[in-house]
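Q: My labmate handed me this sequence with no annotations at all. I'd like to see what the chain might look like in three dimensions before we decide whether it's worth expressing. Could you predict it?
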Amino acid sequence: MIGVATSDRCEVFSGDATDQLLARELFDALHAAAFDGTGITREAYSPHESQALGIIEAKARSLGLTTERDAGANLVITLEGTEPDLPFLACGSHLDSVPQGGNYDGAAGVIAGLAILAGFHAEGFRPRRSLKVLGLRGEESARFGRAYIGSSALLGALHPGELEARDRDGHRLGDCMAGVGADVARIGRGEALLDPARIAGWIELHIEQGPVLVARDLPIGIVTGIRGNLRHRAVECRGEAGHSGAVPRWLRRDAVFASAELVGHLDRHWRTLLERGRDLVVTCGEMGTDPREHAIARIPGTTCFSFEVRSQSREAMETFYDIFRSECAMIGEERGVVFSFDQRMETEPAVLDAAWIARLKAAAESLGLPAEEIPSGAGHDAAVFANAGIPSAMVFVRNQHGSHNPREAMEIGDFLAGIAVMRAAIREALE
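A: Here is what I predict for the chain of 431 residues:
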């Protein structure tokens, strides 16, 4: 029986006991397979990611569901409908992680989808159109600098040149994808591996990776839109190394001071745009000098840093990107340094489907759960599906301590609430 238990807080939710047992079993198995002593490491197209797909696939088969790997090497679990030629409804998420990440980012959505399919199968519910769970590869950008690789390849949104991206050990993305069974020849031609018209909708459960649901004491939220991003994985500032005591300020070409001035200017521009009501977040997540040249008495000649801007507005991202490049040019001229840029990468913002948002809100209300709308600051595979013209929606689950770190702390009651809302909305759409 599903319902909200008596409590002063919203998070105590009594869901299906079978869902809870399945969730605990799979989260424990995924943790045991990928815990590296500090956190969870399942990098894109790595053996640990493949192992995670195998754990989910084995459980799906034991529950009587059919499984396969698609041409992008993503896991596909199917509850076949009575009219399988109809466009299918899909749910799921990704199974890779950042290095030393948490156990719920991505995996929660795949396990939620499996719980829904398994429950329908166990009760003998057979919809007209098929229902599928996708365990997607390569959502995180941590390894190759490109996010949403699996979903983008699936829908023909991966640029062929992006297969040349390399990780920090020199491994080429195209080779790593081929190594797990992806059809790199088709991907390299820019071919969609799956016709978007074959997908009736995409529904994704994910932990919230920010603090809003925790701050508002809400177990779940219904997502309205997803920020896009513009980024460079590596921006290099090249000046001139020198002796710290022998070169006066007016003759210095100090890469650290130039980079620090750039970041300070960007922060002021960011604050100004926020005051004008623009949706914007800006990050330099990596920054450093060459450790082989570190010395307390040396003026640094080179720095390297990442740059990222995110917004729900394409125009706001482009505006800030133009500011960034203008500041680089100005500071470069004033300080005698040169900024160089690797390939610009971008992901479009996404607006999620109004009909599905309404359906999810109605499902939450019918279960006695709050149905607050919330935008997503983090990116998700749902953005790729939405921008391919597929009606898409998301349910966020409250999560303590943020994400992309080992301290992710999703309560099982909140997770069960998210599953219950998804199950009710999907059933209503399929009947």
